[in-house]
Each structure stands twice: as C-alpha cells, then as structure tokens.
Amino acid sequence: MNQLLNKLERKYGKYAVPDLIKYVIVLYCAGAALGLIDNRIYYNYLSLNVEAVLHGQVWRLVTYLIEPYGFNTGMGFIVSILFFAIQVNLFFLFGRSLERAWGTFRFNMYFISGWLLNIVAAFILYGAIHSTYYMSGFQYIYWSMFFAFAAENSNMEFLFWFVLPIKVKWLAVLDAVYLIYCVVENIVSGFSYLSQGGTLAAAGVYFSTALAIVVALGNFLIYFLSSRDYRRISPGDIKRRKRFKKQVQQAGRQNGGARHRCAVCGRTELDDETLEFRYCSKCEGNYEYCSEHLFTHQHVKKHV
To answer: What parts of the sequence cross the membrane (predicted)?
Structure first.
C-alpha cells in the first residue's frame, strides 16, 4: 500500500488540494444547516440511495457527503450548538495535524478513499439485501481522523469534559470500544428487527450503520499501517541490530567497559570524561583517536 501511494503521489501529487480540511468543514457545516432547515431534504434528494442512483440520480454519489447534523431540540439545542462548534474546531486540529504528518497528497487520498469505500459498501449492501438507503454519510470518516491523530500524537493531553486531563491515546481506546459496541449493537438490532417480521431491506438501516463504521475504521487502518516503518521489524533488520549490539558489548569488555579508546595513548572516556574521540578518515581501518592525537598521529597505511 505504501509503494502504491508513493507511486500515485509522484504521478498525481501536483493535483493535491492544500488545507483540504477547510473544504471538508464547509461540507460538514452545510449538513448542519440542512439539518436545521429540514432533514427530509437530505434523505429524499441527496442521500446515498443506491436504487435512485441506478435510476439516474448520480449526484447522490457526491451529495451524500452533506449529511445533516443531529441537533437536539428544546433545552438541549444550545448544548448541541456548543458541541457542534467544538467538533468543528477538533476537525480543524485533526486535519491540519495529519496533513503536516502525512503530506498534502496522502491526506487528500484519505478522504477520497473514504468517499469511494462508502459508495462501494452501499452497493454491496444493496446487492446483498436490497437495502436502498445507506444510512450514513461521512460522519464516521470524519471521526476516524481522531484515531489517526491519536496515532501521531499519542501523548498529547486533552481536558476530558473540560476538567480531567487524559492522554489522547486513552481517549482513542475508549472511542474504539464505543464504536465496536455500536457495530455489534446495530447488527443485533438488525437481526432482532428481522425476527419480529421486519423486511430485509428495512433492516438495512441498522446494517448500513454498522458497515459505515467498519469502513471508516478500515480506512484509518489502511493509512495508519502504510505510514509504519516495517523494516525495523523485519528478520534481517532485527538480526543486524542484535549483531551490532553484541559487537558493541564485546568492544566494551575489551576496553574495560569504555566505548572509545585512543589508538596512540590508549586513554578512554573513563580516564578523562572531557576527552573527545574521532575516527581518522585518512587512516586505512577503523582507528579512533583522542582530541590530542587526532591531528598529530602518524596515519596508518596498509601494505600491499
């Protein structure tokens, strides 16, 4: 995967959109505005309805990204607005941090692949159980940015509920547990609905939510795993590090525990901690000298 992304970046990297998170937030805010006006507009004309797409409403493949935000009514409305504002700020933080860590092209690809994977999942669900509505836009892809952010900044601390300091990595673990619970709950609810005489297509509301979460987590794992350096855990590299460590230990025992020894006077850093040691580039072989003899020693030449 990493090699594929590198190849794509060399070919298409010039088309990447800098600071993409700004445009993503515009879509997110548009969904929030739509939710305040009327949710039915989205589900009737903009959502990822596969059957409607197959009948020519291809714009839904893009407009499904504008999913309404679920504002609460009554006394909870003000709190809902507050949490929406917090989410927007967090998305800015996550997005810009990931773009700096991954690069503009890979951050663009993260959203493009999330968009395409959701479309593929919707068509698979439609083909399997004839579920027309894919009841999730892009919300889980947005929040999967948090896992990527936590992987890159695991020791950063947030104030949980604005009071308790907690490291990002533990918040990510809690969030992962919650999402896994949501997947299981929706699958169980779907089968429970079927057992009560519900139709398979209607049960797709639950199954599509579970599938959308799995797609978002899978999208995160693709980019997380592709950013890891697996050479450090390869058998050859592990063997090389062990061999180097053994050589260093043997050299230390030979020098009485010292790491450096002057080839002229024989002094080590244990004799004088202010001594500095360097290798001579003109000597043929690995000869190390203290600062007093580095420029005054006679260069060692191998006889042919």
So the answer is: 20-37, 74-95, 107-129, 141-164, 176-194, 200-225
